């Protein structure tokens, strides 16, 4: 007898909050063997100055760089900082509340393994969530004295700040880990399909020959046959303004004969009236006219 087997249900999509909780607990356990739990996750977006102005006091701030450019910061409060220090020096988190003191270079150095692991876990764990791509392999940089110095190195724009409230597992101690990283602009929308090809570029790139006609002289065949080299022909009424521009026998308009940079030049006197749609067929082998801009320079 054949059994009907129901296919397994697809795995539930992970939420951003759960992804951040898992990232923090994994980072602490794998980097410095610190067992902790995440009690709460909050997320906010806004202008840099607004978010920096609401940072908690006493945070240890570490700048984050991508390709040598500052993109944000990561921070620990005094309790989280002390727990990271204690578990690496004493092997456990002390039950006593951390004393208030100035952040030192040793604090930053001992916290770096946990913070680097936290960034890596957040980047990997938030893939497929709305936070996907927010963290992209930033490197820990220098320690920042405070929010003012952070504002000096970070560029203006929209940022996201994530706060993780940590249960440090000893005497009810709680700490705070914080990520503040610039939001990336949305990608440019891709064309659903490439734009249709047109003939405009090939047509406009086709060669065109402009002919400057100074005068047309009608002669009887006998007179044309009698023309000789060096003979001077009279052109009654012809001036430098008598030139006509033509393409394939089509009159485009008047021009004026002159000079530019020691060479003969033409100045177009009026808009060239015929358009491509007005020109008759030029026959096989003839290309459409691409008219050049006005040429400056003429005798005064």
From TrEMBL:
Keywords: Cell projection, Cilium, Flagellum. InterPro entries: FliN-like_C, SpoA-like_sf. The keyword Metal-binding does not apply. Pfam families: FliMN_C. Residues 203-272 form the Flagellar motor switch protein FliN-like C-terminal domain. Residues 279-300 are annotated as: Disordered. Gene3D superfamilies: SpoA-like. It comes from the Bacteria. This is FliM/FliN family flagellar motor switch protein.
């Amino acid at each position: 007898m054949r059994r009907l087997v129901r296919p397994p249900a697809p795995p539930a999509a992970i939420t951003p909050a759960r992804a951040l909780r898992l990232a923090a607990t994994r980072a602490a356990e794998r980097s410095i063997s610190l067992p902790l739990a995440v009690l709460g996750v909050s997320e906010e977006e806004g202008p840099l100055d607004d978010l920096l102005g609401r940072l908690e006091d006493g945070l240890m701030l570490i700048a984050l760089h991508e390709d040598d450019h500052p993109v944000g910061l990561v921070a620990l409060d005094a309790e989280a900082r002390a727990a990271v220090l204690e578990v690496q020096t004493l092997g456990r988190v002390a039950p006593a509340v951390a004393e208030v003191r100035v952040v030192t270079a040793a604090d930053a150095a001992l916290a770096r393994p946990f913070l680097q692991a936290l960034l890596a876990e957040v980047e990997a764990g938030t893939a497929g969530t709305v936070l996907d791509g927010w963290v992209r392999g930033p490197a820990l940089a220098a320690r920042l004295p405070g929010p003012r110095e952070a504002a000096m190195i970070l560029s203006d724009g929209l940022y996201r700040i994530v706060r993780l409230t940590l249960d440090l597992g000893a005497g009810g101690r709680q700490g705070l880990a914080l990520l503040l990283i610039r939001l990336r602009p949305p990608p440019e929308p891709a064309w659903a399909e490439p734009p249709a090809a047109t003939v405009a570029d090939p047509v406009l790139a086709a060669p065109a020959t402009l002919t400057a006609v100074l005068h047309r002289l009608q002669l009887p065949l006998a007179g044309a046959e009698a023309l000789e080299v060096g003979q001077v022909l009279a052109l009654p009424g012809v001036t430098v303004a008598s030139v006509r521009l033509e393409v394939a026998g089509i009159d485009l308009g008047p021009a004026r004969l002159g000079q530019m940079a020691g060479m003969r030049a033409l100045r177009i006197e009026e808009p060239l009236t015929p358009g491509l749609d007005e020109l008759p067929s030029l026959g096989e082998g003839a290309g459409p006219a691409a008219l050049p801009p006005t040429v400056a320079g003429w005798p005064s």
